[in-house]
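2024-03-11 09:14:02 DEBUG pipeline.ingest accepted 1 chain
2024-03-11 09:14:02 DEBUG pipeline.ingest length=292
2024-03-11 09:14:03 DEBUG pipeline.predict start
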Amino acid sequence: ATNAIGTSPASAASNSITTLAPAYDIEYFVLAGGGGGGKTVGGGGGGGGFRTGTVPSVGGATITVSVGGGGAGGTDSGTQGGTSQISGPSITTIASAGGGRGGGFNSNIPGGDGGSGGGGGRNTGTGGSGNTPVVSPPQGNNGGNASPAAWGGGGGGGAGQAGTDGTSSGGDGNGGNGAPSTITGSNVTYAGGGGGAAQSAPTPLGGSGGGGNGGHYPIDPGNAARDGTAQTGGGGGGERDSSPAGGDGGSGIVVLRMLTSDYSGTTTGSPTVTNSGGDTILKYTGAGTYTT
C-alpha cells in the first residue's frame, strides 16, 4: 500500500492498495527418466529419481516444469536418463536425477550413478550408486553387480529396492522394484529398474514400475531386452549381445496437485488436467508452467 499524505495540494492526496493472490500449498511429484540398458551381457538401466512432497506457492508466481526423457539403450553401455524438475520464485528447485546407465562389456564401464543406479555389465562388475546427488528422503537405490567371469549383468536399481546381482544363469539380475504414488488419484508404481542380461532363460525381470526385462539366449525377438515403460521412469533392460542395443529407459513425468478452490487455471505446456476429491491435478509429460 502507498500513502500520499503530505502531497501538495491536499486535494491530490490519495491512497492505493495492491491486492496479492493468496498463497497456498502445492503437492508435487517429480519423476526423472529411466536409464538405458547396456549390451553384451549388459546391466539394466536404473529407475528415474523419484521425489514427492509439498511446497508453498506465492500469489501470482510462475512454477516452471521440465520433464526428463528416457536414456537410450547402448550398443555397449547405455546412457543416463534425463533430469526432471520444478522451479520458481516461491520454492527451492526440486530436481530428480535421471536413472543411471546400464554397464557394458567392451568399454569396461560400470553401471552409472543416478536417481537409481544402473546395473553393472559383464567384466565391469559394479552397479552404480542410487540417490546421486544425495537428497533426503532418498530418490532411489543402487544397481546390482554383474558376475565378472560369467554371463550375468546386474539389475538396475528402483525407487523402492536395489537391483539384484547377476550370475551365470537366467532368472537373476532382476531390476529393483519401484515405489508407489497416489498423487494422480490412483495408486501407481513408478521407477522400476531394468533387468540385466543373462546367459539363458528364465528372463531377468524388470522391476515393478515400468522396468524393462533383460535379454538372454537364444536371441530372438521374444528374448530381446525390453524398453522401460514411457511416463513411468522405468529403466531399460540389458541386452545379451546379438541384438542391436539394450532397452531404452522410460520417460518421466511431473505432477502438481492443489485444492480446486485454489487452482488458477493458468498453464502452458498442455498438462493433462483432472480432478479428485476436491483437488485439481496437473500431469506434465513435457515442459510447461503453472501460474498460481
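2024-03-11 09:14:41 DEBUG pipeline.report The chain has a mean pLDDT of 90.
2024-03-11 09:14:41 DEBUG pipeline.predict end
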